[in-house]
Amino acid sequence: MNQNEMPHYLQVKILVSLAKADRQKFSEIEGFENIPMDQLNYHLKTLIRLGYIDKDNSGYFLTTEGKQFVSFLDIESNKKEITPKVSIWTLIRNKENSDKILMSKRLKHPFLGMYGFVTGKVRAGETLESTMTREVFEETGLEVTKSHLIGVARWIDLEKGSGKFLHDAFFHQFEVLDYEGDLLEKTLESENVWKTINEIKSLGNLLLPSVKKYFDEIGKGKVQINFEENITDLERF
User: Fold this and answer.
1) pLDDT band at 190 (very low <50, low <70, confident <90, very high)
2) Which of 116, 136, 164, 172 is deepest in the core (most CB within 10 A)?
3) Cis peptide leading into residue 7 (ω within 30°)
4) Helices (H) and strands (E) in the chain, counts
């Protein structure tokens, strides 16, 4: 079971109880006063098998995996908290023609058919720069040899009209200064194409909001961003 999967609700209750103490004996586990003991014992054994808890002479306790799991829980509701996604966003200029910028057309939801820069989620334990170089290579075939961080921006996306929450992410924004290799024109997730700034601006509503804002800022002479937070109303997601 991975961190994105939820155990049985009774197993979650056990994990929440064990989060409140270094060790708990069978009789000390909270919330099972009206649950048959054999049922509690079954769920304890299941959690041991899954690697979330263990047992010694002093009682039951959370393993490292169990502690990682409960760190994502609201222990009052016993539900997994939804947190912003941590991602990278990468601007790549053509080193043979600096007027052209690499655009990635998405071939999957969300934002199917829309254009943006190379993006990707930061994996646990991975540095931002490592994420950027990995994602650029996986999505374009290019090997980054020089880059720098130009800013951090948070994007909270709401459905236009209803205000329904859709998406929340921190984007660490990189600019690639040099690279090696040949461009992959298409992957399973995207099509890659070099476009001039005018060609990019002509895409209009096919541009992702973060990219549209970037090119709007270029026109104002503001390119480098330290940190900003954005809330957008999306017509498509």
Assistant:
1) very high
2) 136
3) no
4) 6, 12
